[in-house]
Amino acid sequence: SEGVAFAPLVGDRFAEPYMAMVRLPAGLVSPPHVKSADMFGLMVEGRMTHTLAHADPAQAPRLGPGAFYRIPAGAPHVSACVSDVDCVTFLYQDGAFDFTVVTP
Fold it and tell me: Residue 66 and residue 37: Cα distance in Å, rounded?
């Protein structure tokens, strides 16, 4: 894997609500961050966790193919691809994409 890959489906993710397919490399763990728009995802391949920044990631549900998730705007969280294969997810965000790192 060479990093996070975005395949746009609808909309310009930097300017408006959008839909995209996203691939995250196996083992990737994001820094704690927030987004200014709600994000909705549907897992296609691999397993992911999305954990509030101060929660124990070991307690987070492992979301596999077919799992739906929502990350509310402004919620500091960590996203991780916890499978041995890359994680592929369909994303819809109800505003432009952003990724603001927060300190714990």
Answer: 23
Q: Retrieve residue 28's tokens.
A: 């990737």
For residue 103, name the pLDDT band (cuts at 50, 70, 90).
confident
Q: Which amino acid is at 52?
A: L
Give the model confidence (pLDDT) of 20-39 as tens digits.
999 999 999 999 999 999 99
Cα gap 45→96, rounded to integer Å: 25
Calculate the alpha carbon distances from 35 to 16, 58, 63, 66, 98 in Å.
Answer: 13, 23, 20, 23, 6
Contact criterion met (CB below 8 Å) for 17 and 92:
yes
> Using CA atoms, how far apart are residues 44 and 9, in angstroms rounded to an integer?
15
Rounded to two decimals, the pTM is 0.91
Give the amino acid at 83: S
Strand order in the sheet with 68-71: 5-10, 18-24, 87-93, 39-45, 68-71
